Amino acid sequence: MNKLKMACLTAAIASSSVSFAGGLLTNTNQNVAFNRMMSREASIGIDGVYYNPAGVVFLGEGHHLSLNWQLAYQTRTIKNGYELFKNNVNNPITPREFKGEAFAPVIPSLQYAYNKGRWSFQANLALAGGGGKCTFDNGLGSFEKIVGETAMGACGLADAVDNAAKGVLGAAYNDTFKGMFGTDGKYSYDSYMHGRQYYYGISIGAAYKISDNFSAFAGLRTVYASCNYYGYVRDIKVGNTPLYTVLDPTKTDAADILLSCDQTGLGFTPIIGIDYKTGRWNFSAKYELKTRMRLKNKSVNQAPSIGNLPANLRGALIAGGVPETLVDNNILGNPTVQRAMLDIKSKFDSALDEAVGEYEDGKKIAGDIPACLTLGAGYAPTDDLRINVGFHWFDDKNATSYNNRNKKLDRGTLEYNAGAEYDINKSLTVSAGWQCTSYGLSDEYMDDKSFVVSSNSVGVGGVIRLTSRMKLNVAYFHTFYEHKKTSEQSALSPKLNYTSDYTRNNNVFGVGLDVKF
Question: What is the pTM of this model?
């Protein structure tokens, strides 16, 4: 029961974030120019307010504004194999596929710069992380695994109770509890969850042109996190018997699990950057310090309690005609029955704080955004052609998360990208790019409640110059995710293998309007 509860309460974290590009908790597609080219770290443009803020000072004097809209759709697929899944009376199939869908129809962003003399004053408004909600209509394999194991445990307890009762009553006892739960571990349940996660970022800063070729930037981003998680596991049956009847037969929801949690938090990100121009080359670097985030919970959660299990078993046995003294002394006092009940209760009690700690009402939990280093180099072999390469490093391993899960990573995230754009004429530019994202994943870190997999993204698009002061960016990029496979053994005897195959699919469309005035 403790594992079942833990799985439900933590699963919504996985269904929350729609990470489109970037590190574990960082969105880098904050301008449509990135979507169409994938490498903008060394470009000189208004999108540089995010990608290359030091370089924006070279845009020229005046006001520069970029308004962007993106639409993203992502699926997350986990294929789990587990022998106990065959006991699910509604879907007795293994391996089983669990799919979550995340849809974000409106992802806005705005970049602004005012250049005067050697100065550039800048502001950026975008989703620094998250960006939508994800729904798993049928829950996740990790907690169906525990439902199946709970069903086997209930059957084992029923067998222990009935054997003890038959030992004192003989043929007069008719295997009441085995009749209720059966002996084969058949089960059914209903599960659902969704999550929403938005990290709103507002940045301000200034760049200064130290020389005609070299500039520097300093700024600060304020990040406000707003998250919501909702999910349930309910109507759990073992055999044909609702589980609530042995927890609290007076309450039909006694075995139900409900998560309803809102989280909010505030953090600040110092940012520095430099840009250097020489001939047809441009080089840039930007460093964002770690953002310390503490998320405060406001929750209305419900979880089953097994503290009344002995009393409920006692009442059921007495109601079945077993004398009270025999129930107390010979059945519930039976060492095998006591060990079975104590094992369930002790595991539940010992894991209770861990199970609900992250979502306990009023509690603050760690959710840092990692430090990030970006490097870029750009070269223009002709006036019409520009080629860029870039590199990102996210220090995920040192960004504190709940229970220090970040320490399970082998390393931080590494990203490599390249892109090119070509001016067909004065009115039209076409572009394309590629980015490789490599996460430092370990098998221990992988979990269907919160997973990523390494990937390659490809973007295409173009620029349409509407007037001399206005241009339109259009783009599409698709991410090709790898598969990550893991295997573990259950705690049952005999041991059973539980396998997982993780992957995703991602599509993003974008339109942006750049204006100079």
Answer: 0.87
pLDDT digits (tens, 9 = 90+) for 409-424: 999 999 999 999 999 9
Q: Is the pLDDT of residue 354 over 70?
A: no
pLDDT at 476: 97
- 67 Cα distance to chain centroid: 27
Measured between alpha carbons, how far is 115 from 421 in angstroms, rounded to an integer? 25
At 266, give phi and psi (nearest 5°).
-135, 135
Rounded Cα distance, 282 and 277, in Å: 4
Per-residue pLDDT at 231: 84
Per-residue model confidence (pLDDT) at position 473: 98
| Contact predicate 74/102, CB 8 Å | yes
CA nearest to 84, candidates 139, 145, 8, 138: 145
Residues 6+ apart with CB under 8 A from 493: none
- The arithmetic mean of pLDDT across residues 94-103, rounded, is 90
Hey, is 357 helix, strand or coil?
helix
Q: What is the pLDDT, as a whole number, of residue 305?
A: 67
DSSP 8-class letter at 371: P
Tell me the residue type at 98: F
Interacting residues of 55 by C-beta distance below 8 A, sequence separation 6+: 42, 43, 44, 48, 207, 215, 275, 282, 284
Read off the amino acid at residue 186: K
Instruction: Give, for 128, the enclosing helix (H) or strand (E).
Output: strand 119-136
- Token reading at 96: 């089983």
The DSSP secondary structure of 161-180, one letter per residue, reads HHHHHHHHHGGG---HHHHH
* Residue 6: burial class (beta carbons within 10 Å; 0-12, 13-18, 19+): buried
What is the Cα–Cα distance from 251 to 305, expressed in whole angstroms?
12
Q: Which tens digit of pLDDT belongs to each residue from 51-92?
A: 999 999 999 999 999 999 999 998 999 999 999 999 999 999
Residues 27, 126: contact at Cβ < 8 Å? Answer: yes
Looking at residue 25, the DSSP 8-state letter turns out to be T
Q: What is the amino acid identity at position 297?
A: N
- With 80 as the cut, is the pLDDT of residue 126 above it? yes
3-state helix, strand, coil in the chain (%, to 5): 25, 50, 25
DSSP codes joined into one string, 135-148: EETT--HHHHHHHH
In angstroms, rounded to a whole number, what is the distance separating the alpha carbons of residues 368 and 404?
Answer: 11
Write the Ramachandran bin of 4: left for phi over 0, alpha for psi from -120 to 50, otherwise beta.
Answer: alpha
Q: Which amino acid is at 378?
A: G
Q: How far apart (Å, rounded) are the C-alpha atoms in residues 440 and 291?
A: 20
pLDDT band at 4 (very low <50, low <70, confident <90, very high): very low
